[in-house]
């Protein structure tokens, strides 16, 4: 019974709260830039994380601690 309630709470969290911006975009009359702002934010976050990953990879490669199995 507890696991069922946890999954119901997670479903309610997504459908009732986290998807509100997407519902507003779907129902509203917005231009292309405002409709895709969430996609641009995801892209920026991914590019920052990729740059960090490449920087750390270069650091380990210079130190010689990279696993070369």
Automatic annotation (TrEMBL):
InterPro entries: DUF6341. It holds the Pfam family DUF6341. It comes from the Bacteria. The keyword Transmembrane helix applies. Keywords: Membrane, Transmembrane, Transmembrane helix. The chain crosses the membrane at residues 6-25, 37-54. This is Uracil phosphoribosyltransferase. It comes from Polaribacter aestuariivivens. The lineage of its organism: Bacteria, Pseudomonadati, Bacteroidota, Flavobacteriia, Flavobacteriales.
């Amino acid at each position: 019974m507890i696991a069922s309630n946890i999954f119901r709470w997670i479903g309610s969290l997504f459908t009732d709260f986290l998807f509100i911006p997407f519902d507003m975009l779907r129902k509203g009359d917005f231009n292309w830039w405002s409709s895709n702002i969430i996609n641009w934010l995801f892209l920026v976050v991914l590019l920052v994380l990729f740059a960090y990953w490449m920087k750390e990879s270069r650091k380990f490669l210079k130190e010689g601690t990279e696993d070369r199995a």
